[in-house]
Amino acid sequence: QSPPVHAIFKRQELIGRGAYGAVYRGIHLSTGSAVALKVVNLDTPEDDVSDIQREVALLSQLKETDSKNVIKYWGCWLKGPELWIVMDLAEGGSVRTVMKAGHVAEKYCGVIMRESLVALAYLHKAGIIHRDIKAANILLTDSGRVMLCDFGVAATLVSSSVHSKRSTFVGTPYWMAPEVITEGKTYDQSADIWSLGITLYEMACGNPPHADQEQMRAIMLIPKSKPPRFPSDGQFSQLMRDFLAACLNEEPKERPNADELAKAKWIKSFAKTSTATIKDLIANYNAWTKTGGMRMSLLGAETADLSDHG
């Protein structure tokens, strides 16, 4: 019989709270490695438990991942009514967290997108749609590594067909593709590409489009509105604008896939930029928190409402 979880990992301070439980910093006792412990109370409604089971099943599928851009899953353990899901710890927090100190400049956006596309290409080839791409689900390590996390609503395309589709309504409304919202429409991995485009907009502008609207209103607006574009002032390069437009194509089948986007001119322009530059974002955020959190650039008051909760 395998040893109990508290003999393998030591639970430390609380990092954040998510929909299904709390996330703690932990230590793998035999190696001293820092890990993230997602502690889920299984005394929750059945629907929630099935979501958790889906996440665990998907994480298990990704356990042998060699993709440095997908969060590494260590395993899960039962402890009384609690399920401990153990993953790599991203000490730098999420992109959404570091954004509290200000918008993300174009060069950092480029590196984060480049690395996120590696993760998406990996997931999509494995037949997985993430379904909840947003800055809060892109994590950063101290060294600047970019990792995609939170597979709570991810879906496996179980069909052997390349054209398999999903039709369930999940994700976070502001980042959802129009076809995910529209009743009766099916969607596939291209829905993640739309959400990636919205995430780029979120990083560069401070919030996703329609963030000033309530969620239900945003859900009504997204399918009826023209695809979002950056403001027409000169602060974003044309290549960055072209990349956004490619992601946010109204026609899902016209959107490039992750591999194709990785070859976009804008992404290629950051080919020689090291992920270590992302450490600047973390340092900027740490400096901001030390000064008591006065904004270095105007993010808009609504940021607090959309910040990530683990």
UniProtKB/TrEMBL annotation:
<dbReference type="GO" id="GO:0005524">
    <property type="term" value="F:ATP binding"/>
</dbReference>
<feature type="domain" description="Protein kinase">
    <location>
        <begin position="9"/>
        <end position="267"/>
    </location>
</feature>
<keyword id="KW-0723">Serine/threonine-protein kinase</keyword>
<keyword id="KW-0547">Nucleotide-binding</keyword>
<dbReference type="GO" id="GO:0004674">
    <property type="term" value="F:protein serine/threonine kinase activity"/>
</dbReference>
<comment type="similarity">
    <text>Belongs to the protein kinase superfamily. STE Ser/Thr protein kinase family. STE20 subfamily.</text>
</comment>
<keyword id="KW-0808">Transferase</keyword>
<protein>
    <recommendedName>
        <fullName>non-specific serine/threonine protein kinase</fullName>
        <ecNumber>2.7.11.1</ecNumber>
    </recommendedName>
</protein>
<dbReference type="GO" id="GO:0005737">
    <property type="term" value="C:cytoplasm"/>
</dbReference>
<dbReference type="InterPro" id="IPR050629">
    <property type="entry name" value="STE20/SPS1-PAK"/>
</dbReference>
<dbReference type="InterPro" id="IPR017441">
    <property type="entry name" value="Protein_kinase_ATP_BS"/>
</dbReference>
<dbReference type="InterPro" id="IPR000719">
    <property type="entry name" value="Prot_kinase_dom"/>
</dbReference>
<keyword id="KW-0418">Kinase</keyword>
<dbReference type="InterPro" id="IPR008271">
    <property type="entry name" value="Ser/Thr_kinase_AS"/>
</dbReference>
<feature type="binding site">
    <location>
        <position position="38"/>
    </location>
    <ligand>
        <name>ATP</name>
    </ligand>
</feature>
<dbReference type="InterPro" id="IPR011009">
    <property type="entry name" value="Kinase-like_dom_sf"/>
</dbReference>
<dbReference type="Pfam" id="PF00069">
    <property type="entry name" value="Pkinase"/>
</dbReference>
<keyword id="KW-0067">ATP-binding</keyword>
